[in-house]
Amino acid sequence: MIQFSDVELMRGGEALFSSASLQIAPGDKVAVIGANGAGKSSLFQLLLGRLGADLGTVHLPAQWRIAHMRQETPALDRSAVDHVLDGLQEWRALQQAIEQAEAGADDAQLARLHGQMDDMQGYQVQHEAEIILLGLGFAPTDLQRPVADFSGGWRVRLNLAQTLIQRSDLLLLDEPTNHLDLETVHWLQSWLVQYQGTLLVISHDRDFLDAVADRVLSFEHRQLTLYSGNFSSFERQRAERLAQQQVAFEKQETRRAEMERFVERFRYKATKARQAQSRLKALERMTLDAPARADSPFHFRFTTSDKVSQPLIRLTDAALGYGETTVLSELQLSLYPGMRIGLLGRNGAGKSTLIRHLAGDLAVQRGDSECGAHYYPGYFAQHQVDALDAEASPLTHLQRLAPDAREQVLRNFLGGFNFQGAMADDPVKLFSGGEKARLALAIIAWQRPNLLLLDEPTNHLDMQMRAALAEALQAYEGVVIVVSHDRFLMESTVDEFWLVADGTVQPFAGDLNDYLQQLSAPEPSSGSTPTGSTADRKAAKREAAERRRQLAPLKKAAEKAALQAEQAQARLEAINQTLADAALYDDSRKQELQQQLQAQAEAQQALAAAEAEWMAAEEALESAGQVTTD
């Protein structure tokens, strides 16, 4: 059992939480929720023993084995499946001991070690690792690929797989659904439901928590509150508690006002002085209940342009892809004002390819794509977040878009995304991933697009921001197309689904539950999955080597394009530093300012072109990988 007794944890001289007393029983599955920066990750560090409590005590059973998901993975030469198996340190040590006993021909020692391996079910772990990797979206031919071949998001999946395979009594998962698609989240959810140990999971995905958790640990105003039930139950309980708290607060305020009136009236009257002093002391001792209030700091809307085309865009017999590789073909699609679409389909099926075309970043290979005269897309994706100017502030980003707008108007707008006060002037390089994502959304909202293209917009966003985003999308009058693993966002903001599969896009006749019911956890087949035999491993390595040979030219092109984008970004940053000089805005330097603004616009166009080429190269590489896998 995990037991907290009057625990206080400080950071930067302030309490993350205090007076925390709670118990988590073996087998409990606990959702850990709270705003970004509330202290959720610090709580995990406390449980791991990497932080000590400033006050109080934390007790965990001494014999418990703890598995904790790492967030970063270096570029390793080890294969994906070996990296996962490295999570089983006891198994690795036993495997090495068996190899040494075999080399020394120590039959007695070998028999004992094989008995230990059998007791720990060690002969099944290779198969278990393959099952987990396939469940997390890896292809059978990926299993022998080196870790270094995978992008950052896929390495996070490898870390997750390494964590899941560990024999643990306590499993700590920090945002495990980030970088996963809808299908993989569904698989992970099913795996965690079957997990026998104690689980603490930090997540902002409501539906995921509803399915997995049976208790909720909530960070609320620097307090830890433990609720029974899943996330939906937590929301009901919290709403009831806040309502009761509001009633208590109002009663207390009424009582306080009565006491203050009595004190003011009688404190100087001899006959009432003692009673007045008594009430004065009671006022000083009175502990106010915090009033229940809507405490979300986010209040924003997406507005659309005044003019709109009918349709916004029409694709006829269109094919999309990269170079000579076609990802989607025979597309017959039209977007009309008011459409709200959720894109479904497995990773690599072409969802991002379609969105990039609609955003204007990718031309058709063949067929027709006609945009209306008033076609103004707003595109959110992770690479848009990464392209923010690290040295510029949120206010500067908007001033570049609207140099004639009054500063207070821009500050008020940014305040709706919780960039308030000095934070609106802080450089982006100081921001967290969630704060950068909020700024990218703010920039899109300012430009008033009539088509919102959102590719996994909720990564790194906390629940309050996710709820605000859903509310803003519900009120938005333009066209919405969303790719997201967040089921709450999808279900609350879209009216129809399109399925991207088998190289094309078709309407999906059903809702999100229907789609999820069609999914099943992939099982490795004897014909496609590497087994533990030497011959099969050699064959898999030959296949992986041939695959790397085929992908080498595309990988080289992607690296070259990335370098060009990096150089373009450096040129733009140099211009931005010049524009950051307040003296440049003096009336006597108007011509120089105009030249710099023109240079900035040209540099932005060059960067956009370089990034488009880079993304095309990366997606061509990914698509080619999918083709060779298939």
UniProtKB/TrEMBL annotation:
Residues 518-558 are annotated as: Disordered. One of its GO terms (molecular function) is ATP hydrolysis activity. The keyword Repeat applies. Pfam families: ABC_tran, ABC_tran_Xtn. Keywords: ATP-binding, Nucleotide-binding, Repeat. Residues 2-246, 313-527 form the ABC transporter domain. It comes from the Bacteria. Residues 520-534 have a biased composition (Low complexity). Residues 535-549 have a biased composition (Basic and acidic residues). The keyword Repeat applies. CDD domains: ABCF_EF-3. Belongs to the ABC transporter superfamily. ABCF family. YheS subfamily. This is Probable ATP-binding protein YheS.
